Amino acid sequence: MTDTAPRFPEGFLWGGATAANQIEGAYAEGGKGLSIQDVTPQGIMFPRVDGPTEDNLKLEAIDFYHRYAEDIALFAEMGFKVFRFSIAWSRIFPLGDEETPNEDGLAFYDRVLDELEKHGIEPLITLSHYETPLHLAEKYDGWVNRDLIGFYERYARTCFERYGDRVKYWLTFNEINSVLHIPFGSGGINTPKEQLSEQDLYQAIHHELVASARATRVAKEINPEMQIGCMVLSMPIYPLTPNPDDAVAVMNADHANLMFSDVHVRGYYPGYAKRFFRENGIELNITDQDAEDLTNTVDFVSFSYYMSICESGDPTVKADGPGNIMGGVPNPTLEASEWGWQIDPQGLRIVLNQFWDRWQKPLFIVENGLGAKDQLVEVDGVKTVEDDYRIAYLNDHLVQVGEAIADGVNLLGYTTWGPIDLISASTAQVSKRYGFIYVDRNDDGTGSLDRYKKKSFDWYAEVIRTNGGSLQA
């Protein structure tokens, strides 16, 4: 590690990241249809219910739908260069399979973009962030059905045509590889996970990859200056022991995740994926048009980073702990957050180097943050949160980002998850707080929704002002 603060390139895009279903609320306003989030009151890791229920905090969330101007002004006060947010597909096409979009939904995002432009903040838009319209899940079984490719292409084209002269950076699907673990939440697949065959799961994945590539092609047709990225959940994987069997287990686990970006970047399925399909009796329906579509590769690779895991070739070694929601084995050398997510700043440097060496495409860290149970206190008559633990977490990760840049990694920017308290995707709690801005809302739904700056607010503002110069290596 260097003895001085890391150097970030000029024009580095500092900011924060959110998702519509976790901040907007107004789930039935402006012509919006139901999404899969409206029937998962416990979070996307849990089974769906029959309809919206009062205990689903996402239905109101933090009311960004009505308070976006106030929140964007706070982001501007921190000095944000970029703000990542998602468009709720069911605001634009309430059912998902209509021919004509909902103008009220389109107009809402026009207003959000107006505010960002007023403050000089670059938008980074995710087209599909765990927000498949519920109708598409119930009628078509989500991405298992090839028809969704056309519905998504129509949705993407609508957004590109409406906002393409105002938005440079786009992401097609959020954490697309997470469909392996949460098929309903990630892919709108209504078939229960335990009943879903590998054949159907990987056919659904193929449909998403084709849809992503088609969106990339459409974007370039509309405005060649638009930059289209894929977005994956990153997770460095270490062998639990020096046993070569553990190293092979790591390789296989890596392949399961890296396949998604390999296809996005290279435009075809790698040999290891074909072997997996062959040995597991998976025969994908890949048309000639599909193969041609996949050659529309992305301009950059974006990813989330929260934790690392270990793998073992010993079948008797089991995952142990609530944090290993994506599989793997806990690392005995690392500490964990309150929710069991193991904290590994160096893992971020490892991932950045791995991705850059593998693809030689610009990278973008679009999620990284610490969920914690913050306590609102009063200091000199001002309500705030003394979140030194969050400052330490982010500082240590950003120092490693600086190391990766020094290693030669081409990194476009960094957006923390999430810059304002929001509803957790995995648990649907608001008490799992990530933000620099405290939102007065509780897990029982009470609270004023007032906003308060945490100690980390000024800390991050200084990091941005100094372009990383204030970080403590």
UniProtKB/TrEMBL annotation:
Pfam families: Glyco_hydro_1
Enzyme superclass (EC): hydrolase
Active site: 367
Documented EC number(s): 3.2.1.-
Molecular function GO terms recorded: hydrolase activity, acting on glycosyl bonds
Keyword terms: Glycosidase, Hydrolase
PANTHER family for this protein: 6-PHOSPHO-BETA-GLUCOSIDASE ASCB-RELATED, GLYCOSYL HYDROLASE
Family affiliation: Belongs to the glycosyl hydrolase 1 family.
Protein name: Glycoside hydrolase family 1 protein
